Amino acid sequence: MDILYRRGSATAAEVREGLRSAPSYSATRALLRILEAKGHVAHTQDARRYVFTPTVPRERARGSALKRLVQTFFEGSTELAIAALLDRSERRLTLEEIGRLEELIAKAKKEGR
Prior knowledge:
This protein has about 110 residues and is of the alpha+beta class. It has two domains: about 1-55, Winged helix-like DNA-binding domain superfamily/Winged helix DNA-binding domain (Arc Repressor Mutant, subunit A, Orthogonal Bundle); about 60-110, no CATH class. About 60% of the residues lie in helices and about 10% in strands. The protein has a three-stranded antiparallel beta sheet with strand order 1-3-2. About 10% of the residues are buried. The model has no long low-confidence stretch (mean pLDDT about 95).
């Protein structure tokens, strides 16, 4: 999906080229067909090639994926997910990033979440 969002649209071969440890071409096509069946992408035909385009806005897809990740790996706990991200970060947060996180936490407190 990230490749499709960055490019706007792409063929299965182009998606495969954009992956670091790419699966086979057939596996890439199968994944795109699954994403299409779930309503995440659509295709148009350009000669003999299918060109895939995202149908779900990136923010909506990001929220849905994050929700599933937190439910699956962190027992639905936002706290555990954030702690894992902070513990495993490959780089330290900047003061600006810490400030934005503090603002988000203060807003959540104010809203009673």
